[in-house]
Design goal:
11 helices, globular, binds iron/sulfur cluster, cytochrome-c3 hydrogenase activity, 2 domains
């Protein structure tokens, strides 16, 4: 494990140098708050940004993505034959990603890249991407990452983890991708590994101490799906929900999408767009039947998927990294921390 130090005066020139090799993404501030976006050549990432409104998931899984195209020109031999679109697989780097958002990539990977199915678009984007995280020294009030197997200095899913040391960054290189990124930036000042690890451990401990996360998941695996499904609290949980879908769009681990075909002149295009289990149209069948036609069914689905189905299927914890975005963004204050505890504590009387 290598540690390097990066003097802050060398940071911007290094980022600029890396643009020859990478498309650079990072936090930027606009009228909608802080977002992770591709940086224009004259832009630097806002490394001291608060938690971004949306996570970095769109770097690998865009909100709208063109996946197939066909010509409708019948004079062409291949008319109406759907073909993959050309993808831009230029190496990209995400700077300043929060450690729990990188862990979320690892959870999403279980869905898009597994022995049964490999999503070619997501996998190509994943292979092309390097994640350079920045440890969170001042976790926000909704952060409960430590309670769900992540944390402000979690390394899972990251290629580099950096710590802000005032006039410099201390960076822990975690993977070969991380080494290549540091070399492309010209960052090569080695730091003492033992001393650096001690510093990381101190910062981690201090940051974790600030998270007051009273969220328990320890008994979820022992519950049966049917007991939780039939639990009496779902009406109450769902009562105020307006099915706006915000919680799923801001979530770094939500991956649902819909496919849409559009034609324009002689070209047909197939897109995939983010969708949400909170929308009644998401499960509306062509026959008119809707297996999740009521609000309570949709709200239950969201929590059961994150906190029970995913846990049972993959045995890798729950499908939540505790970023708190859904808690902060829900217009009616539905709080996954409370729902998780209700599910965890639920004892059937049957
Ligand atoms: S953000 Fe809140 S109101 Fe909107 S769908 Fe999610 S739980 Fe319901
Ligand atoms: S469910 Fe909520 S707290 Fe958990 S990862 Fe998604 S947005 Fe973050």
């Amino acid at each position: 494990m290598n540690f390097i130090t990066i003097d802050k005066k060398d940071w911007a020139p290094g980022v600029d140098q890396s643009r020859k090799t990478y498309r650079v993404y990072g936090p930027v501030e606009d009228k909608n708050g802080c977002q992770i976006k591709p940086l224009a050549p004259d832009m630097q990432p806002k490394m001291d940004a608060p938690v971004t409104v949306m996570s970095a998931k769109s770097v690998l899984f865009p909100q709208t993505e063109k996946i197939l195209t066909a010509t409708l020109d019948e004079s062409k031999e291949d008319h109406h034959v759907m073909k993959p679109v050309e993808t831009d697989d230029m190496p990209r780097v995400v700077l300043g990603i929060r450690p729990y958002d990188a862990k979320a990539v690892h959870l999403v990977k279980l869905n898009f890249d597994n022995p049964d199915y490999k999503d070619p678009y997501w996998c190509a984007a994943y292979d092309a991407t390097t994640f350079v995280g920045l440890g969170v020294t001042r976790p926000g009030p909704c952060d409960f990452s430590t309670a769900v197997g992540s944390g402000p200095f979690s390394e899972e899913g990251l290629d580099v983890l950096m710590a802000d040391m005032d006039d410099k960054y201390l960076a822990k290189i975690l993977t070969e991708k991380g080494e290549k990124w540091a070399a492309a930036c010209g960052f090569a000042t080695a730091a003492d590994p033992k001393e650096s690890q001690v510093l990381f451990d101190v910062l981690k401990k201090e940051a974790e101490k600030q998270i007051q996360a009273d969220v328990n998941t320890d008994k979820l695996a022992q519950k049966t799906i049917l007991d939780l499904y039939d639990a009496p609290f779902w009406d109450e949980v769902a009562f105020s929900c307006i099915n706006c879908g915000t919680c799923t769009y801001v979530c770094p681990t939500c991956w649902c999408f819909d496919i849409q075909d559009e034609t324009r002149h002689n070209t047909a295009v197939r897109f995939r767009n983010w969708d949400t289990c909170m929308s009644s149209l998401f499960t509306h069948h062509a026959s008119g039947h809707n297996p999740r036609g009521t609000k309570v069914q949709r709200v239950r689905q969201r929590f059961m998927h994150k906190l029970k189905y995913f846990l049972d299927k993959y045995d890798q914890g729950i499908m939540c990294v505790g970023c708190g975005r859904c808690v902060a963004s829900c217009p009616v204050n539905i709080d996954i921390r409370e729902v998780c505890n209700r599910m965890n504590d639920y004892e059937t009387t049957k």
